[in-house]
Amino acid sequence: MSSFFVPNNYIKLSENNISNDIKNALSPKNGFEVKLEFNDLPYGENALSVSIDEETMTLHHDKHHKKYFDNLMDALKDENISDLTINDILSNLEKYPKNIREKIRNNGGGHFNHEFFWNLMSPKPQSKPKGELLKLIETEFKSFENFKKEFVQTGLDRFGSGWVWLCINNGKIKLSSMSNQDNPIIEKCGIPLVGCDVWEHAYYLKYKNDREAYLNAWFEVVNWAFPEKILKDLS
Ligand SMILES: [Fe+2]
Questions:
Q1: Domain 20-120 is in which class?
Q2: Residue 181's CB: how many other CB atoms inside 10 A?
Q3: What is the tens place of the pLDDT at every residue in 98-136?
Q4: What are the residue boundaries of the structural domains of the chain, listed by start?
Q5: Taking all residues of the chain, what is their mean pLDDT, rounded to a whole number?
Q6: How many angstroms separate the alpha carbon of residue 229 from the centre of ligand 1?
Q7: Tell me, which fold does domain 131-234 have in CATH?
Q8: Separation of 179 CA from ligand 1 center, angstroms?
Q9: Coil, strand or helix: which one is 192?
């Protein structure tokens, strides 16, 4: 089990000092920070079975996410990464050699996105957000129900594999989809608040080709307290 927000068992992968170039380029507030470690799921593999079956959760976390993490560590094996989070690395991709940049982007995105995704779900979900997040959603999308419809449609419109993201930039929230393992940190377009995996590996065993059914079911297990806390920490 990992803790809800930032795990305490941080693994130092190198004793070398952080590169000054990278350190100076860090944003002071990156929202949810993901460390360079592979965590257990924050709940059991069958805990979300009302929406996501146990076999999908096991394969998704133990095989797919683990592979992204292992590939990321392999790409970074000759880099000084002491004290860096994956947020630091993804927001400074241009600092890395061209021959490993794409591997870091794909697998680092994969590591961040999946850690974010596990924390964004809960066996004790809330049916809708509250407070500031709800206010922002209602301002931008008229109602939570309308936001949900647009979120699902954005997921359906993503051709091939990718993610649906809700991010915040300068106090304004924006819905978009991105291909592969890209995210708002890589695209430098905001801080992610909500993200849903629409790769087939996230739903195919239970929902087959019905991505819409998966997206609607996914809303039943969203832990709205997670983006609410990100938003609170930013203010
Ligand atoms: Fe995935």
A1: mainly alpha
A2: 23
A3: 999 999 999 999 999 999 999 999 999 999 999 999 999
A4: 20-120, 131-234
A5: 89
A6: 23
A7: minor pseudopilin epsh fold (3.55.40)
A8: 12
A9: strand
- How far is ligand 1, taken at its centre, from the CA of residue 56, in Å? 10
pLDDT tops 90 at residue 28:
no
Taking the centre of ligand 1 as the mean of its atom positions, its distance from the CA of residue 122, in whole angstroms, is 17
Ligand 1 centroid, distance to 124 Cα (angstroms): 21
Residue type, 211: R
Q: What is the pLDDT of residue 214?
A: 98
User: From ligand 1's centre to the CA of 14, what distance in Å?
Assistant: 28
Q: Is the pLDDT of residue 199 over 50?
A: yes
- Cα(112) to ligand 1 centroid in Å equals 11
Task: From 63, 88, 64, select the one nearest 76 (Cα to Cα).
Answer: 88
Handedness of CA 74, 76, 81, 85 (dihedral sign): negative
Distance in Å, CA 172 to ligand 1 centroid: 27
Residue carrying structure tokens 């996230």 = 202
**How far apart are the CA of 57 and the centre of ligand 1, in A?**
10
Work out the pLDDT band at 235, boundaries 50, 70, 90: confident
> Same CATH topology for 20-120 and 131-234?
no
Indicate the SS3 state at residue 152.
helix
Residue 159 Cα to ligand 1 middle (Å)? 15
How many beta carbons lie within 10 A of that of residue 99, not counting itself?
8
* pTM as predicted: 0.88
- From CA 77, how far away is CA 86, in angstroms rounded? 14
30 alpha carbon – ligand 1 mean position (Å): 22
